[in-house]
Design brief:
70% of the residues lie in helices and 0% in strands.
Length: 160
């Protein structure tokens, strides 16, 4: 991949890769590390992509894999509790902060499925291909995540 194409792809997809990594890892610093690794792999791969959609899916897949590798790392064994995390996003409304905290408290497999479905607007089939699981598994993860959020948020939950 030449420098101009790499730079254009990095600018176009850096926010998507960062958001995906942040939702998977829960830490802005870890997400930054994952973004660097993803774009390093893009630069090294040579970039024989069939189009923009192929590149986008490749970046999402590599991001998910980098996050999984980071979660398996021995460094992750020494975690701090959620209350000790120094940097949390600032929200306009208190209910947004509550929703964010509840989503981040979900297990990684539920968080990732929710993020890809609602924020990256992927279909259940696309999420299944990306994560290497079946469509029914993705549907189950989404349903369980919604159920947990509904239980945790109680009256604030708005089922659409």
């Amino acid at each position: 991949m030449d420098k101009a194409r790499f730079t254009a792809a990095a600018r176009r997809y850096q926010n998507m890769v960062y958001r995906t990594a942040l939702h998977a890892l829960g830490s802005p610093q870890d997400a930054d590390d994952a973004v660097q690794e993803v774009f390093l792999r893009l630069f090294r791969c040579g970039g024989a992509f069939d189009g923009e959609e192929h590149l986008r899916r490749w970046l999402l897949r590599v991001t998910v894999n980098c996050c999984r590798d980071a979660l398996k790392s021995p460094w992750r064994k020494r975690r701090v509790s959620w209350e000790e995390v120094p940097e949390i996003p600032v929200f306009d409304r208190p209910e947004q902060a509550a929703l964010y905290q509840e989503v981040m408290a979900l297990p990684e497999k539920y968080r990732t499925a929710l993020y890809l479905f609602y924020y990256e607007e992927l279909s259940v089939r696309e999420i299944g291909e990306l994560l290497g699981v079946g469509d029914s598994t993705v549907t189950t993860r989404l349903a369980r995540a919604r159920k947990r959020l509904k239980e945790q948020l109680g009256e604030d939950w708005q089922d659409e």
